[in-house]
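Supplementary notes for students who missed Thursday's class. We covered one full example, reproduced here. Read the sequence, then the structure, then the short commentary at the end.
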Amino acid sequence: MKLLFATNNSHKLREIREIAGKDYQILSLNDVNMATDIPETRDTLEDNARQKAQFIYDKTGFSSFADDTGLEVDALDGRPGVYSARYAGEGCSFDDNVSKILEELDTIENRKACFRCVVCLILDGNEYLFEGRIPGEISRERRGTDGFGYDPVFQPDGHIQTFAEMPPHLKNGISHRGIAASKMFRFLQKK
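Structure (token representation):
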């Protein structure tokens, strides 16, 4: 089965392809020569995922899915949340975002956080939502070189490593995106 993933993010694409296994051919926007900017203007993860998936489906006609992910930090009243990718400002890097989080939490003891991912699948014109959530905490410094985004500072509950220190198969098995994507693939197996 072919599915178009509304991304050109090579890290996300690799994760999803590893989770999907051999039963699915996961195409990126590059694979279908789509260089259009995808709108992401909503105020919730669910609505952003819907907006992106519907946009791609409408443009290509392919069964499509999109995700939106947010890091929700208790001591920051759930920020950065839906603004996680651009938390340090427009045009910022992953490193800028991590620096801002570490700076904001510098003197704070409560470092509890949660990664949340919503995947929206558009299949034959119908919409389906899948959510993945993993609790953890923000470490005091960056650790590890794998992964991307906030992975070097997010340590999931029950583990001594950050996501960036974990081998991909371990991270993908427990991550927010891995949980949401696995729910989607299990749903597809029943279709």
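Commentary. Residues 4 and 27 are 5 Å apart (CA to CA). The mean pLDDT is 93. If anything here is unclear, bring it to office hours.
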